[in-house]
Amino acid sequence: MSRKYFDKYIPIVEIDGDEMAHVMWDMIKKYLIFPYIDLNIKYFDISVENRDKTNNKITTQAIEAVKKYGIGVKCATITPSVNKKIELKIKNDLPSPNASLRNELGGTVFRQPILFNNIKPLIKNWQKPIVIARHAEGDQYNAYECIAERNDIVQLEKKSNGMQNIIAYYKADTLSTFLLMCNNQYSIKSFAHACFTYAIEKSMSVFLSTKSTVSKIYDGLFEQTFNNLFTAKFSRQFAAKNISYEHRLIDDMVAYTMRSAGGFIWACKNYDGDVQSDFIAQGFGGLSLMQSLLINKKKNIVLAEAAHGTIARHFKIYLKGEETSTNPIGSIFAWTAGIRQYGIVNNDKKSIEFASLLEDACKKTVEKGCFTKDIANFVGINASQSMTTIDFIKEINFAIKNSFG
Ligand code: NAP
Ligand code: MG
């Protein structure tokens, strides 16, 4: 089938990336998408080389396009470390594209595991996905830090209506370290709104975790904001769907998660979300089996990606001309989320059906025992029985063809 561009359709903004993730991205398009479906795509190559060549203008253009059209699929990208800058001869200081996207698009990142019947989670009672909603703004991530030497004085002062108030005064008697972090109610409320809306869409209960017993004011604001919004706007809709909202202390929440069957949304503060999403990912089968959705309901934006990075170690092997056994499932599910959203906004049933068909083809392939090395290791079979990246993708293609009959 030849590729046609449907200009009347709201496009998908495709954001291409780096290294092994980019190699798989190309294979996925070539074997699993373009032969089967016509999509209106606006393509942006934000590989590290192109970001450097364009002085990062390409990233800005890609972000603007996602803002304009509202649907994005993103391949993993390099955030160059000092060593990587030297290795790749990068001339510019390039910020993390993901941080730029998050800052510009706002919204909330929902990370969820992709489940298969024959990949049993490490926690045997987990039967349904646990979705981590991370409040990806503020706290430790744009905090102020300092070191104080013996006899240095560090104080926190608040000025309000011309009144000065010293909140904290600290005289260091030995080398000490300090952290000042902040957040704001608008951002917390938007986060709560995103979690509750997503919960209704997915018919899943929500838990917010904080440590409001210790941090009565800071974490207290999170707890109160969620409670107030829930009571004012969402309690009736939740009751109608037979789902619930509850605040739990983070330690209690971790313990509950280990005992639970899953099937809920866990709203996490920024740092907790960073840590807990890795814990949940590993428990369900690894980063390669996680989907990551950045959703901003108010701006009608959905940006889908895999949760893993560019898989640099595998790329080095690939560059030597050797076959790798890299798992494309997370990237495929980024595409299916994007295509499904494309179908929804364009009222195009065929795209929605194709997204489900492709996900189904992945399920059939894995569930008949075709594995990449990471899955083989996870389920405890000999890694020598695992497939190469390309053979695994061809096997999924075979499953798609079978579905079409
Ligand atoms: P990574 O790309 O996630 O890979 C870390 C390790 O996890 C791999 O070496 C591999 O383990 C395993 N792995 C991850 N995805 C896999 C897959 N699909 N199939 C099989 N194994 C997989 O993390 P990284 O190597 O630390 O980061 C590399 C680059 O990615 C960095 O430049 C970082 O900035 C970037 N990054 C980008 C994003 C993003 O764009 N969303 C996110 C995170 C990191 P084995 O080597 O043991 O097989
Ligand atoms: Mg993390």
Describe the protein in words:
It is a single chain. The protein has 405 residues and is an alpha/beta fold. Helix content is 45%, strand content 20%. The chain has 14 helices and 14 strands. The protein has helices at residues 19-33, 48-53, 57-69, 82-87, 97-105, 185-202, 218-241, 250-259, 270-284, 312-319, 329-345, 349-367, 373-379, 389-404; strands at residues 12-16, 41-45, 71-74, 108-113, 130-134, 144-148, 153-160, 163-171, 176-180, 205-210, 245-249, 264-268, 290-296, 301-306. Strand 7 and strand 8 form a beta hairpin. Helix 12 packs across helix 14 (389-404). The longest helix is centred in the middle third of the chain and has 24 residues, at 218-241. It is globular and about 75 Å long.
With strands numbered from the N-terminus, the spatial order across the biggest sheet is 2-1-3-14-13-4-5-12-10-11
- DSSP strand content: 15-25%
Question: Count the strands?
Answer: 14
- Gap between N and C termini: 16 Å
Ligand species: NADP nicotinamide-adenine-dinucleotide phosphate, magnesium ion
- Tally of alpha and pi helices: 14
Tell me the series of helices and strands, N- to C-terminal: EHEHHEHHEEEEEEHEHEHEHEEHHHHH
Helix percent band: 40-55%
Gross geometry: globular
Residue windows where pLDDT falls under 50 for at least 5 positions: none
Structural class: alpha/beta
Mean pLDDT comes to 94
